[in-house]
Structures are given as C-alpha cells and as structure tokens.
Amino acid sequence: MSAPLLKLHDLTVTYERHPAVHHISGAFRAGSLTAIAGPNGAGKSTLLKAIMGELRPATGRIEHHLTRADIGYLPQAADINRRFPISVADTVLLGAWRKAGAFGRVAGYEMEKATAALSAVGLEGFGQRPIGSLSAGQFQRVLFARLLMQDARLILLDEPFTAIDARTTRDLLDIVGRWHGEGRTVVAVLHDFEQVRTHFPETLLIAREAIGWGPTAEVLSPANLIKARAMAERWDEDAEACEMPA
Amino acid sequence: MTAYDIFLAPLADYGFMRRALVACLCLGLSSGPIGVFLMLRRMSLVGDAMSHAVLPGAAIGYLVAGSLSLTAMGIGGLVAGLSVALLSGAVSRTTVLQEDASFASFYLASLALGVLIVSLRGSNIDLLHVLFGTILAIDAPALYQIGAIATITLLALALVYRPLVAECFDPGFLAAVGGRGPVYHVLFLLLVVLNLVASFQALGTLMAVGLMMLPAAIAQLWAKNLPAMMATAAASAVASGYLGLIASYHLSLASGPTIVMTAALIYGGSLLFAPSGIARRIFPRPHLKG
Description:
The structure holds two protein chains of two kinds.
Chain A: E1 4-15, E2 18-29, E3 33-37, H1 44-52, E4 59-64, E5 71-74, H2 88-93, H3 97-100, H4 108-120, H5 136-150, E6 154-158, H6 166-181, E7 185-190, H7 193-199, E8 202-206, E9 210-215, H8 216-219, H9 222-231
Parallel strand pairs in A: 3-7, 3-8, 5-6, 6-7
Antiparallel strand pairs in A: 1-2, 1-4, 8-9
Chain B: H1 3-7, H2 9-13, H3 15-40, H4 44-53, H5 55-65, H6 70-94, H7 99-121, H8 124-132, H9 140-169, H10 171-176, H11 181-207, H12 210-222, H13 226-251, H14 255-273, H15 278-282
Helix pairs in contact in B: 3-9, 3-11, 3-12, 3-13, 4-6, 4-7, 4-11, 5-6, 5-7, 6-7, 6-11, 8-11, 9-11, 11-14, 12-13, 12-14, 13-14
C-alpha cells in the first residue's frame, strides 16, 4: 500500500447550512485511481471542488502537502464558456500556467509540448480552430490536452465523460489509464457505475455522506447501492443541527 | 464643398472640435476593448447599470466644485461607480442575489440619488449636461484625465490579458491553478468604472456606454478571435467618434447623441453585411471542400 497523498478529516461542505457532503474521512493513496460515485445530488462535484480548494469546508479539514501546481483540475463542461473566442492552441497553452503564470512569457518548448499534447488526444492540426467550432467530444479532448500540459501529480476530473461519444470516452479512458500507469493520483467524479466497475480500481461511494471507500468491487455492492439511493433524498427543511461525533 | 471642408476644416478651424476629437480617439481606443470583455462576460447591461451608478458621485462633485467642473465630477463619479461595483459584488457573494440583481438595485438607488442631488441645487440645463454630456466643452484638464484613463486601461489590459481571458473563459481552471480570479474581476470592474467616468464627461450618464457596447457588438459580428475583436471594437469606436463629430458639426446636431448614433449606424450595417450578419445567412456562399 502506498502512502496517502491527500486525507479528508471529518470533512463537511454545506450549502445554506444543509450538508452537500458531511463527515467524510479517509485518504486517497498516492498513485491510486479512484472514482467518486453516487446518485445525482450526492455531493460528488462539491466534494471535488472542496478538495481542489474552491469551496471552503464548513467543518473538518483536508490534509495534503501539494501546491496548486501539483493539482490538475478538469471542470464540468457546463462551467466553461464555450462561446469564448479562443483557439484550441491557446486553450491548451493555459496548461503552461505553472511555468508562465499570469504574466510570464510562454516558452518555445511549451508550444511544442502543446502540439504534442494535441496529437496525444487525437487532435493534430486543430490548433488554430476556435473552440466554438468543436463538438462536445473534441472539446473534451482539448481539455485533456491541457491537463497533459499541466503534468500534475493529482488529477481531479469532474464528470469527464458526460455527453461524450463512445469513441472519445474510450480514448480518454486510455489517457486516464496512462496517468495511473505513470504513478499519478487520479480522482474522477462519475455517475456511470458500469464505467466505474470496469476502469476504476477504487471507489468512494457517496450520497451526501460516505457509504463506502475502498476496492470498487466491495464498495459497489448491491446493499451499498440501495443505501446510496435511499440516502440521496431531498433536504429536510426542518432538520435539526447535526451533532454527529467526529 | 471640398473633402477638406467636410472632413478637416471643422477641426482646423476650432480648438474645441480638436479637443473633442482627441477625447473621442482616447475613449474609443480604451472603451472598445473594455466593451468586448464586458460582452464576453455576459455583462453588457451591467455596463449600462454602472454608467448610471456614477451619477450621484458626479453630482456631489458638481455641488462641491460649484460648477460643471469635469475633474471634480469625474473624481466623484469614480468613487460612486467603484462603491456600487464593489458593494454589488459583495452582496452577490454573501447573499442569494445574483450579481445582475444586486447591480440593478444599487444603480437604481444611485441614479435616483444622483438626480435628486442635481435637482436640489442645479438648473435643468445642468441636469441635461450631466445626463447627455458636454463633449464640445471638454477643457485641457478633462482631456488629460481622459487620456490618462485610456493609457491606464490599455496598459492594464495588456498586463492582465491572460488571467482575464482565463477568468472569463474557464473560471474553474483559474481557481484551480490559484489564479485569484476575484482579484482580476474587481480590477476589470475598476477599468469599466474608469472608462465610464471618462465617457460620462463626453457623452453623459445616459450614453456613456455607447462607445463601449456598440463597438463591442460590431466587433463580434466581424472578428473571430479576441485580439481582432478588440482591434475592431477600438477602430469602430474611433471611427464613430470622428464621423459623429463631423456630422454633428455640419448638421448642427448635438454631438454626444450623434456620435452614439453613428456607432449605431455602423452596427446596423454590420448586422446586415458582416461575415456573421444577416446577408450571409440569406445568400450563403458555397461550402468549402475541406
């Protein structure tokens, strides 16, 4: 067993005092490939945003020794302004942020890296195309190319295969497998349990709280899945303050 | 009447026309690109709201200076506009109100307060100047102020171009790389307010966004990438300023509205004939082979 790369200690993230996820404890091991799975509204993306540092925990904490530059993040496609007039090449080059920062010059070798990243995702020659002209699958490939540029130790993917064609999903899953092979830690939010079973050795099953965390076959047991469905119910407007012990 | 009489003589003959032209050139160069970013951030109407928000500050500046001092009103407008921008941002982050809703509330309050202050002390003519601007009355200090604002805007845009693009295109990514998105958002709002204060002196609160949003819309119809869009917006704003001034001189029309109307005419033409315009939809060209 490799050492933990990132630990959650009794983590709670709330929305207007209601828990999006609460009291989650555990660790992502270095080099692990983990799916965060659960029904709609289970708090998967919220948990990912908290890990990424975009949302502040209401209670509990996240422990790691990573810098921002060590973390690569793939946002949900819906969070990106696809009508923005930016080219594919410029989008991929944003992945050089760690080196170039907000104001620095983008080095020549980063340009070459961007071209190589585009080839790796099957988009050779697409550099000058505006992103608005791409299909959903092609655009997701561009975002993966940007992640390749980032060369991150921890890669967080938020619903990476939603509304993506089967061929693209297969190609992108290959890239995820390659990252895993290179010893990077990958955490992906997914809702397709079949995909999780086939491609992700470890799973954190949540439905606003952790139901299971460990080897996928054990976590996605019929009993756990029934429990997950039952727990992802609507908010209780009259709920009392949560006093679950840490 | 020769071309010289039409296009150059008014400028050669009158200092106030030259000052107005320089003001228009500065405004166009900086407001056009700012308008493009406002539009791409889906904040087109926020610009309009902000332009009204500068009014109470300008009115207080007017009261304090005791006359239509553009510098005093400019400083007052800057303080008021920034306060509304920051307060709206703070309200939208801490309450359930979206930024556009809090902007709407603050700018309405601001506009009402501004008109009240002007009407307490000033005449109807002063109110007209505040609402519609006085581009032909721009003096040297006001011109320096507009020039300084244009210079600051262009330098700042060049400096924060990359984070601004990232924040607008993919805010989640910028947050993930620790890019401090909110800082650039506030900085951008500051640039918007600065430009509105500059335009406010020339075009008045009602039309201050005229040289910001119309050129941005024109640019979006003609250009495909961001640098080209910003250049097109600046060029069309500058052209509107010059042609509007000349037209207002020869036709004895009010300058501010004529300038904005010229931009509107260019927009109308672009709607019809630009690559993304209506004519191309009605008469499509044959598609390419590859």
